[in-house]
Amino acid sequence: MFLFAAFFAATAAADEGMWLLPYLQKMNIADMRAKGCELSAEEIYAADRSSLKDAIVIFGAGCTGEVVSPEGLLLTNHHCGYGAIQSLSSVEHDFLKNGFWARSRAEELPAPGLEVRFVRRIADVTADVLGAVPSTAMGEERAELVKKQVAEVRKRFGKEYPGMEISVKPFFGGNQYFAFAMEVYKDIRLVGTPPNSIGKFGGDTDNWMWPRHTGDFSMFRIYAGKDNRPAEYSTKNVPYRADEYLRISLDGYEEGDFAMIMGFPGSTQRYMTSYEIDRMLTITNPQRIFIRGERQKILAEDMLASDKVRIQYASKYAQSSNYWKNAMGMSRGIERLDVKRKKQEQERAFQQWAEANSVDGERYDEALGMIRDAIAASNEAYAAQQYLNEALQRSVEIMTPASYVIAAVGKKGKKLEDPEALKERLRGFYKDYNPATDRRVARRMFELVMEHVKELPDVFVAAEGQFDDLDTAVDYLYDNSVFADETRALEFVDRFSRERLDEDPAALLALSVTGKMLELQQAQKEANRNYADGHRLYIEGLMRQYPDRAWAADANFTIRLTYGQVLPYDPADGVTYHYYTTLRGVMEKEDPKNPTEFSVPDKLKELYAAQDFGAYANGRGELPVAFLANLDITGGNSGSPIMNGRGELLGLAFDGNWEAMSGNVAFEPALQRTISVDIRYVLFIIDKFADAGYLVREMTLVRDGKPVAE
Question: Where are the transmembrane segments (predicted)?
Answer without folding.
Answer: none
